[in-house]
Amino acid sequence: MDRVPILQIGDVLLVSIQVDLQDQSVLNLQEDLAERISATGASGVVIDISAVEIVDSFIGRMFATIASLSQLFDADTVVVGMRPAVAITLVELGLTLGNVRTALDLDRGIKILRVLHERRRGLPGTGHAASTLGLR
Amino acid sequence: MNHAVRETQQMDIRIDSDVVRVRQVVRECAQRVKLSLVDQTKLVTAASELARNTLLHGGGGHATIELVHDGRRSGVKATFRDEGPGIPDIALALVDGWTSGSGLGLGLSGSRRLVDEFDLASQPGKGTNVTVVKWAR
Q1: Residues of A in contact with B23 (CB under 8 A)
Q2: DSSP reduced 3-state for A26
Q3: B71 vs B91 pLDDT, higher one
Q4: What mean pLDDT is reported for chain A?
Q5: Which among A22, A42, B3, B24 could disulfide-bond with B16, CB atoms 3.0 to 4.6 Å apart, if both were Cys?
Q6: Phi and psi of B3, rounded to 5°?
């Protein structure tokens, strides 16, 4: 069965989904991520879905689960790179990703994580960066 | 839903990886009848939801994927059959958010919105048959 690799860049964990995931692989990824966030103390998780051709309700729920999980470890999650056809389909399917943060690409995703992290630590001087990214 | 069938593929849905295989076959068919990328994505997503239902709620079953033609346009028809417990209240099962288990309750209602034709037949104790069609525009 496919196991999705989890890469670490600084204090961010990066998951890039490159294969058509079966449901058990999705569950494994959730567990692996929880382990890795807890072990590394990462402050953020980026899930890159630019290679993902469909997001159905099971995979959509994974994003929400990972976002909730990461919060329990004081980390934020951003889903990046959603294809336009996937976005249109998700809306029609009726799946709202709830409080899952999304960004256009990896670069913006990492910027968002940085701002969220600094803000959470209550560091000064993050107001400008936050407004540039449209974060409230 | 009587359409001329040009080609048929039968598949078992017994394990997790069969759902992935259904997605792949449906996508190949969708590309062959030249569905747009958005329509391919919608059909494959609907097929994924329905194949998972067959596996989880029906206890496994079969999928039939067909290339169809109605005289004017080509399309893909996908049928999912199981001999599971069936759906006692079909109207209720098609309501957004209603779920019999731990899911989100979007499988049936959501996939209906993603296709052009949707037919659901179920008999409690006998099983469920869902047929969907997506036409190339």
Answers
A1: 20, 54
A2: helix
A3: B71
A4: 90
A5: A22
A6: -125, 150
For residues A80-104, b (16+ Cβ closer than 10 Å) or e, as one string?
A: bbbbebbebbbebbbbebeebbbbe
Query: Given this model, what pLDDT does residue A127 score?
Result: 52
Note the ipTM here. Answer: 0.89
Nearest chain B residue to A89 by CA distance is B42
Give the span between the Cα atoms of A45 and A69, in whole angstroms: 11
Tokens for A50, please give them: 């630019």
Domains and CATH numbers, chain B: 4-135 (3.30.565.10)
Question: Are B45 and A89 inside 8 Å of each other by CB?
Answer: yes
Pick left, alpha or beta for residue B7 (phi over 0 → left; psi -120 to 50 → alpha; otherwise beta). Answer: beta
Check CB contact of B100 with chain A, cutoff 8 Å. Answer: no
Which pLDDT does position A2 carry in this prediction? 77
B1 — pLDDT class (breaks 50, 70, 90): low
Which ranges of A94-126 does DSSP label H, i.e. alpha helix?
Answer: 106-120
Choices 3.30.750.24, 3.30.70.270, 2.120.10.70, 2.30.40.10: CATH for A6-132: 3.30.750.24
Euclidean distance between CA atoms B45 and A94, whole angstroms: 12
Residue percentage of chain B with pLDDT more than 90:
74
Q: What is the mean pLDDT of residues B60-71?
A: 96
Residue type, position A95, single letter: L
